[in-house]
Amino acid sequence: MTVSFSNDPTAKGFFAPTRFEADIFDCEVEGQIPRDLNGAFYRIGWDWLYPPKYTDDAAPFNGDGYVGMFRFQDASVDYKGRYVRTDRYLADRKARKQLFGRYRNRSTDDPSVRNLNRTVANTALVSHAGRLFALKEDALPIELDPDTLATRGAWNFGGKYDSRTFTAHPKIDPVTGDMICYGYEAMGDATNDVFVFVIDKKGNVTREVRFKAPIISMMHDIGLTQKHIVFNTTGFVTSADRLAAGKVHWAWDSKVPTYVGILPRDGDAKDMRWFKGPERAAIHILNANTRGNKVVVEAPVSDGNPFPFFAQADGSPFNPQKAGATLRRWTFDLSSKKDTWEEEVLFPQAVGGGLTRADERFWSVPYRYGFMGYTDPARPFDEARGGNLRGRVTNCYARFDLATGKMNSYFVGDVGALQECQFIPRRKGAPEGDGYLIGVASNYAEMRSELIIADAMRLEEGDIARVKLPFRLNSQVHGWWATADDLPLGPVA
Ligand code: V55
Ligand code: FE
Prior knowledge:
This protein is mostly beta strands and 493 residues long. It is built from 4 helices and 32 strands. A hairpin with a 6-residue loop joins strand 7 (131-135) and strand 8. The structure holds 4-hydroxy-3-methoxybenzaldehyde (V55) and fe (iii) ion. Fe (iii) ion binds next to loops.
């Protein structure tokens, strides 16, 4: 069989699949890696082993999971890149071709693999109770070896986790170490069941709550406070009919309201309170707090479909004006009888792809800072060296100060684009936001990737080091930082 990616219009140039695995001992570095940066930055995204079967697939989100690790120690860094050995990847390798069909639609798979776990595990990572997991919201977590990145297989927490799916965005309560997680479409494709779990710091399931969502939609992330868990629906909807018709799992329906369910952490499904609002996409949640009778959620929010590769349900064209996300505050008043909430746009000048991160030691507790990549159209872009991407690349990282309303920015330069940022505390016990902001940058002029390292408190001064890889990295979705306190990290090779 001839391998050709000509049917995937997104797999071109810098975005062509890389299809190799890599080990670099002692990477080339420009600048000085801080000596107190000790641990592993893991990143995950997609990289097609075999081309998608269909040109109308939601190809970016359907590609094989590929994980990278930047391992920092003694002011040096090593890099490792591996495919996640999912059941799907292994079946495709054996067949030497793509056996799987459209995004999250089993009915489009080759009959020989209809009963296989078809997850690509390409979305996010989490470490908890000494284990590292690759996540995608259509399946159970896949455990990885934190040193070698070898795939250990799906994990159901000793059998007590009985949802078929597991979110890409579990939250870890910094006070207790509990992991608060859930699966939507928990009873299978196109079910409105959501199962919520608490997993203690030893890795045991200690609590489960089951509820039914008002619609079947992508419920990608949650807000966690010390008192509540906030679940929001989106306009990405599906149905058994849609899946039987062989379509991509989601279509965006502009007529679907946004429902937000607030569950008390010590409550049951009957204690859930639902609110209803206009067309919105809050795919990722920065952080949330309960303040008296109010639940406050801060998140990058857009007014419509943020992803051009998911079609509009009514057949209308993708609307880029409604796709950009700004950081907004949603306030829910639990003492009011109303089923609506207040929305405030906090930083209208920073419009981005919605990949926000917190200093996660402050998840659910009072916090001050948020971080997010965004596009500053006023910054220069060198089209002669970088190509025709002016105004379209994520060229800045912002640090939002939610106490003062001030924003500080890091600019990547005139031939680059930034992937999701990662905040790393300078040391255990450092104040909130005191540390490093790192992330992978695409260098379009030199067709290779760099890991930039900036001081999170001095973003406008530029990076303090760049780890220069001699090749392009696959497109990242999310990253995760872990130290030897989180994972049994062995000695650096
Ligand atoms: C997201 C990403 C996914 C997915 C569903 O960023 C949602 C949101 C990379 O795959 O399947
Ligand atoms: Fe996500």
